Amino acid sequence: MKQYVFEVFDEMNKKRTKAEKIEVLKANESWALKDVILGSMDSRFQWNLPGGSPPYTAATEQSHPANLLREHKQFKYFLKGGPGDKLPAYKRESIFIGILEGVHPKDAELVVGMINKETPKGLTKPIVEEAFPGLLQG
């Protein structure tokens, strides 16, 4: 089974060298991981959601009905200029809260950080560029 996105970052942060961190990212490559990296680090991605800390009730660590490995596909609805622009703000924000309440609480924290353009701890542009060449462009 693939790791949760937060587990990949936790494992990466336990490594000491840049090469080891890159190896962890490459070994656990997924579009959910790449989307979190893009959303938080690439300036081309602007979010059509209010910043800050949204009001949501986090799922328990033992029982969360959704997984970021699937739910990341809905991020397109939150991008400025994306299909979510046609949705009323309350609907877009409702979908977002639904994701946060459904996924593992630590993945939810990553998503909130992504919306606020906070780079995941321990991640740097050189590490991302070497692990996933051409991913970041802005």
What does the model show?
By secondary structure, this protein is mostly helical. The protein has one domain. Helix content is 49%, strand content 0%. The chain contains seven helices and no strands. α3 runs parallel beside α6 and α5 runs antiparallel to α6. The radius of gyration is 15 Å and the shape is globular. The protein starts with a helix and ends in a 7-residue tail after the last helix. The mean pLDDT is 94.
Lay out the secondary structure.
Layout: H1 5-14, H2 18-27, H3 31-41, H4 68-71, H5 89-102, H6 105-115, H7 125-131
Short description:
With 138 residues, this protein is mostly helical. It contains seven helices and no strands.
The parts where pLDDT drops under 50 for at least 5 residues are none
Distance between the termini: 32 Å
Rg from Cα:
15 Å
Q: Proportion of β residues?
A: under 5%
Following the backbone from N to C, one meets helices and strands in this order, namely HHHHHHH
Counted beta strands: 0
Q: What integer is the average pLDDT?
A: 94
Shape: globular
Number of helices: 7
Structural class call reads mainly alpha
Task: Please tell me the total number of domains.
Answer: 1
- State the helical fraction: 40-55%
The major pleated sheet works out as:
none
Looking at this protein, list some descriptive labels.
single chain; 138 residues; mainly alpha; globular
